[in-house]
Amino acid sequence: MGIKFSLLTVVALVLAVFLGVKAAGLQYFFGVIFPYAAIFIFLVGFIYRILKWARSPVPFRIPTTAGQQKSLPWIKQNKIDNPSTTAGVVARMALEVLLFRSLFRNTKVELREGPKIAYQWEKWLWLAGLAFHWSFFIILVRHLRFFTEPVPFFVHMTDRLDGFLQVGLPGIYITDLLFLAAVTYLFIRRVVIPQVRYISLPADYFPLFLLMALGLTGVLMRYFTKVDVVKVKELALGLVTFQPKVPEGIGVLFYIHFFLICTLFAYFPFSKLMHLGGVFLSPTRNLPNDSRMKRHINPWNYPVKVHTYAEYEDHFRDKMIEAGLPVEKE
Amino acid sequence: MKIYNAKPILIGLAIFIGLATFPLWFNMGKAAPPPDPKLDTPVIQRMAVKQCIMPKDQMRTEHMQLLNDWRTEVVRNNNRIYTASDGKQYNMSLQNECMNCHSNKSQFCDQCHIYAGLQADATPYCWTCHIAPKENK
């Protein structure tokens, strides 16, 4: 159900832009108006989501960690898995964001005959996830060559590293292959494993199909039916310098690709893709385990009226002395 | 409404916005003019019918593949004759055929290659083996 709905949505998007460009001649809408709207939605939505999250109170430290916490001096602390300082938290967060450390610990549970429970090493999701995210990031950096003039050195460097196999012309990019393979794996995993399929929603399938279509149109455009990249860059540069113009004669494949990425940007703040910003706000990753060193006041505590013993004694001292009860102050 | 941990969150958000809008502030609102490859070499000017081996639009998008196919034909199959769609025959050679007319590499090839973000000295890697034509500047 979720699969069909998501697939049909992506197909409808592709058809819409195909007809829009081929039949209705809406190049200006798909090349200028929609991209501006999408980037605007993306930036405003992203800021809104983050600020909304930032307004929820921060809980007490949640030391759900996989290492020894700071304890007695002769017990060795695991400074990255159970940090008590900001530096440790930064290291843990960096490893999480760059290498998906939590996902690396992923295991699979199986009931075997007996019945016996068995936990298995399961790294494929981690590997595919890492391959996918890094490929996507490198592809994004590579695309900066269309949005900058002169092209900065790090774009050239990325381009050269990515294309260093020098197979064919235009040369094959390693990330193009990795990206498609990883997205395909992530999709197949969702469909084939019954438990994962059961919890999968249209919101899970839709980004996958969108990214698959994005990758396929990109690959088609680079290696098979080519478009005029000089004109594409003219359009892209026009957009980022706020002098938009739509050059004649860019193939419809480009508009499909461009529309899909704009859709992804516009969809971003409303979707699970917001984990780009959300990962930095994970309480189990960004809070140091310093509950025993600093006093943390629960932010949603209301002021409690207390009556200390000293006050109590002040209040009843005469009566206590009269009754022969011991008092601390005479 | 209070923002908790406002400092790191706002700094992080500012870095993100800075990175996300990189193309906007990098170009500073100035659109570089699109490239203008020159076709006014002496050889081209002497031609009666000014035409390349394929139509212009096709050459613009497909020339790299054509050159790659030529390389395969010449180096692996020892075949130096290319028959164009109009029946005319050409010598498959970058230095002797293509660059004979387009002898102005810096005014022709490099114009688009640099604009499209290919690094002039690295990719396309034609000139790591071939000798670029001498130009009078």
Write the topology of this structure.
The complex is a heterodimer of chains A (about 325) and B (about 140).
Chain A (H helix, E strand, L loop, with lengths): L1 H21 L4 H28 L31 H14 L1 H4 L2 E6 L3 E6 L2 H20 L9 H10 L11 H19 L1 H6 L2 H23 L4 H12 L11 H16 L7 H4 L4 H4 L22 H14 L8
Antiparallel strand pairs in A: 1-2
Helix pairs in contact in A: 1-9, 1-11, 2-11, 5-6, 5-7, 7-9, 9-11
Chain B lengths: L5 H15 L1 H6 L14 H5 L9 H22 L3 E3 L5 E3 L2 H8 L7 H7 L22
Antiparallel strand pairs in B: 1-2
Summarize the structure.
With 330 residues, chain A is mostly helical. Helices cover 59% and strands 4% of the residues of chain A. The longest helix of chain B has 22 residues, at 56-77.
What do these coordinates show?
The complex is a heterodimer of chains A (330) and B (137). By secondary structure, chain A is mostly helical. Chain A has a single domain (2-322), classed as Transmembrane di-heme cytochromes, Chain C (Fumarate Reductase Cytochrome B subunit), CATH 1.20.950.20. In chain A, 59% of the residues lie in helices and 4% in strands. Chain A is built from 14 helices and two strands; from the N terminus they run H-H-H-H-E-E-H-H-H-H-H-H-H-H-H-H. Chain A has a two-stranded antiparallel sheet with strand order 1-2. Chain A is elongated. Chain B has one domain. Helix content of chain B is 46%, strand content 4%. In chain B, strands 1-2 form a two-stranded antiparallel ribbon. Chain B is built from six helices and two strands; from the N terminus they run H-H-H-H-E-E-H-H. The chains are: A mainly alpha (330), B mainly alpha (137). The interface between A and B is large, with 50 and 41 residues.
